[in-house]
Amino acid sequence: MSDDKGTCTVILPTYNEEENIADMVTLLREMYPDFRILIMDDNSTDRSKELIDALGYDNVRFFIRDPKDRGLAASTCQGILETDTDYFINMDSDFQHPLSAVRRIYDDLERGSDLCIGVRENRKALGIKRSLGSWAFHFLASATLFFRGKKRSRDIMSGLFGGRTEIFSEVIGDHGDEFEMSGFKVLFDLMKYSPDGIIIGEITYEFGKRQGGESKVSPKVVMSVLRQCGAVGRFLARIYGIAKK
Ligand SMILES: Nc1nc2c(ncn2[C@@H]2O[C@H](COP(=O)(O)OP(=O)(O)OP(=O)(O)O)[C@@H](O)[C@H]2O)c(=O)[nH]1
Ligand SMILES: [Mg+2]
Fold first, then answer.
1. Is 239 inside a domain boundary?
2. Which of 12, 72, 157 to mutate to test the pocket of ligand 1 (most atoms within 8 A of CB)?
3. Best mutation site among 10, 11, 12, 15 for ligand 1 pocket (most ligand atoms within 8 Å of CB)
4. Domain coverage including residue 42
5. pLDDT by residue (tens digit) across 180-189?
6. What is the CA(75)–ligand 1 centre distance, in A?
7. Where are the beta strands (DSSP E) in 123-226?
8. pLDDT tens string 71-128
9. Is the full-model pTM beyond 0.90?
10. Residue 227 in contact with residue 123, Cβ under 8 Å?
11. Cα–Cα distance, 158 to 118 (Å, whole number)
């Protein structure tokens, strides 16, 4: 699939990241001049588009999504479907994922992995509540993949990962309607429906602090992850929903 557009697209799902997005794109362009950058924006109400337009870079596309279809997972999936390079790499737009990891993920894909996952080394830095939640979700997700006979990873909930576009476009085409599209954990759904013989690589990284702007995490995100974890998860989601009322 390689052509003059290069071999890799960095997908940046964004919503109201005016404090981060221009710096992210500028640095990514400096570090990876041959890579394409695809910003999947869910109709941000801030100056994100203006700032990217002002940079005037080629190889950078600002994609404004259908307002009726808002969702982080949906944005990543559409980003993969819009990608026309061999590989894609998905990362947050708030500097929590180190930009240097892009090179390591790319190298791993070049070495033969079909999917390369960024594993957070310092989940304790999330704070006690969030890291406990993260481990609990990881346990449930890992069990779900195990019972489906799928390969697992040390960080199924990571938002930093890359893959072969052809494989994952097909996964989304065939199973996208079963994904939790409004949720935050699209990697988990991609793994659930990935082909059995898939080669999964991992790199590790330090999960940083959001550089600027506000988190978009809400209790709805917790519910959506639970819904992804089979019958047990849906049962827990019901209990969590009742407890929150
Ligand atoms: N396109 C799109 N992007 C989103 C949406 N919600 C969040 N994002 C982006 O997804 C990335 C992750 O969202 P965050 O709010 O940073 O979630 P998080 O990293 O789990 O939470 P923090 O640690 O609090 O930052 C960021 O780049 C957001 O701009 C959405 O509904 N649509
Ligand atoms: Mg973040």
1. no
2. 72
3. 15
4. 8-127+153-214
5. 999 999 999 9
6. 11
7. 161-164, 200-205
8. 999 999 999 999 999 999 999 999 999 999 999 999 999 999 999 999 999 876 677 8
9. yes
10. no
11. 7
